[in-house]
Amino acid sequence: MEKAIKKYWPIFLLPTLFAFLIGFIIPFIQGVYLSFCQFTTVRDAAFIGLSNFKRAIGDTTFSHAFWYNCAFVIVSTIAINLGGLAVALVVTRSIKGRNAFRTVFFMPNLIGGIVLGYIWQILLNCVLTILERPLLALDATAGFWGLVILMCWQQIGYMMIIYIAGLQSIPDSLVEASEIDGASHWQTFIKVKLPMLMPSITICLFLTITNSFKLFDQNMALTAGQPAHQSELLAYNIYYTFYGRSGPQWRGIGQAKAVIFCLIVVAISLIQLRATRRKEVQQ
Amino acid sequence: MTRESQSYNRLWSIVMTIISVLYMYPIFMVLINSLKQESAISTGTAFELPTEETFAGLANYENAISTQGFLSSLFFTTFITVTSVIAILLFCSMFAWYITRVNTKVTRALYLLCAFSMVVPFQMVMFTLSSMADSLNLNTPWVLWIIYLGFGAGLAVFMFCGFMRSVPIDIEEASMIDGCNPLQTYFHIVVPLLRPTMVSVAILEAMWIWNDYLLPTLILDINKYRTISMLIQFFRGSYGRVEMGPMMACIMLAILPIIIIYLIGQKYIIKGVVAGAVKG
After folding, report:
1. What is the per-residue pLDDT for B279?
2. What is the pLDDT of residue A203?
3. CATH fold for the domain made of B68-279
4. Interface A:B, Cβ pairs < 8 A
5. Which of A24, A256, B73, B224 makes the best surface tag, with the fewest CB within 10 Å?
6. How far apart are CA A215 and CA B79, in angstroms?
7. Interface test with B, best of A13, A14, A18, A20 (most B CBs within 10 A)
8. Which residues constitute the domain of residue A20?
9. A31-59 pLDDT, tens per residue?
10. Closest residue of A to B187, CA-based?
11. b/e map of A202-223 (b: 16 or more CB within 10 Å)?
C-alpha cells in the first residue's frame, strides 16, 4: 500500500509543501540570515556578523521589555489558572444555570485581541477618570494591571473548558471512596482531584505561559507601549523596532531581537514537551 | 443530596449569576456607548446610560456601514477566513495522511518541521514573509489563503496526524485491494473518518484567522483592503481625532456575528478547543 500511495506524492504533498515553503520555511531561513546583516529591504542586506545581537542586548527598551514580559507571564499565568480552575469547580457542581455560566465565561475568548484591547482601554480609562487618576497611557502600573485583567477576562473561559474536561474524566468512584473514608470536601480536592488533574494543569500552564509570552494585539491596542516604552512586551518591542524607528540599523537589530525571542519561546516549548512526556510515562 | 449542599448550590448559583452579569458588562458598555451621540461620549462618562438628549438611535451604525466601509471589511474578513480554512482542511489533511502512511526519513522530517512551525512566533518571520508576499504578488485578499495555508499548516497537520495514528490502516488497505487508487481511498474512506477532527481544526483556524491583525496589516495595502481588525485599528491610528460613536458601532458589529455563531455552534466550538488543547 505504501508503494501505491508514494506514486501520488505530488498530489498529496505539493500544495501544502509549496505554501509551507513560501509561508514559513524560506522566510524563517531568510530571517535567521538577516539577523546577521544590516538591511532596509531583503535585497540590500550586508553581512555584519554579530553586531546586531550586541546592540539588541544593549538596547535598554529590549531588556526592560524582557523583564516586564516575565513579570506579566508570572502574574497572568497564576491569575488565569486559579480563576479558570475555580470557575470550573463551581460550574461542575449541580447548580442551576451552569451551562449558561459556561457560555458566558467562554465568550470573550472568541473576540479578537485588537477589539478586546479597545474595549478595555475605554472601560479602564473611565474607571481611572472616576478615581481621578492619570489615564492608562500615562501610568505604567495601571497599564500592567490593566493588561492582566484583560487577559484574565479573555483566557479564564478557555482554561475553564480544559479544566472541566479534566474534572469530568475523574472517575466518580474515586471521589465517592474518599468521601466514604471520611475525607472532607477540601481533603478530597487536594488529595484526590488535584493529582488527577495534573495533565490538565500542565497543559493550561504552558498554554498561558506561551500565550502571555507571544502576546501582541492586546498590548498594542491597550497601551501601545506607553508611557515611553514602559508597558512594552517583547513582541511589541520587536514590532516597534522594525516599523516605528527610523535609521538603517534598526531592522537588523529588530531581526536579531526576533531570533532571541524565538529561541526563548522554543526553549519554553521544549521544557513543556519534556514535562508532558514524563507524565505520560508515569500513567 | 443533603439539604446542606443544596443550599450551598443555591448560594453558588446566585454568586455566579452576579459574576456572569459583571463579566458581560464590557460588551454592554460598548452597546450603550454605540447608541450615544458623538458629543456625549467621553472617557469619564462611558458608564452612563444614554439620556433622552444624548440618545443617537442607530445613527452611529448607519455611519459605520455607509461611510466607514464596515461592509467591505466584513466581506474581506469572511472571504479570507473561508478560503483559508477550506484550503487548510483539504490540503493539510492530504498532507497529513501521506506523511503518516508513508514512513520515510523525509516524511518524519516534514512532521517535525510542522511541529516546529507551530512554536515559532510570528515576529520571527513577519518582515521576510511580507516582502516575500510582495515579490510574489500574494498581497491581495484573493490569494492571502496561500500564506495562511503555509503559516497555519503546522497546527492542522499536527492535529490530523495525531488522529490518523489512532485509525487502523486495515480499512484503507481493504479499499486499495478492492481497486481504489490512493485518491479514491482518501476521499471515500479517510475523509469521512476525519470529519470530527476537521470540524475542530476548522474552528481553531477560523478563530485565529478571523481575529488576526498583524499578518493582514503587514501584507495587504491598508488603503484598498481592510479586515475588521485592521479597520478598528485604523480608526484609532491615522486620524487626529477619533470618531468614537462609529467606532463603538463597529466594535459592536464586529462582535455580533461571532456571538451568533458561537451560540449556534457552541457544542462544536468547545469540543474543538478541548481537542486542540489535548493535542497542542
Report:
1. 56
2. 84
3. MetI-like fold (1.10.3720)
4. 270
5. B224
6. 26
7. A20
8. 2-34
9. 999 999 888 887 888 888 888 888 888 88
10. A12
11. ebbbbbbbbbbbbbbbbbbbbb
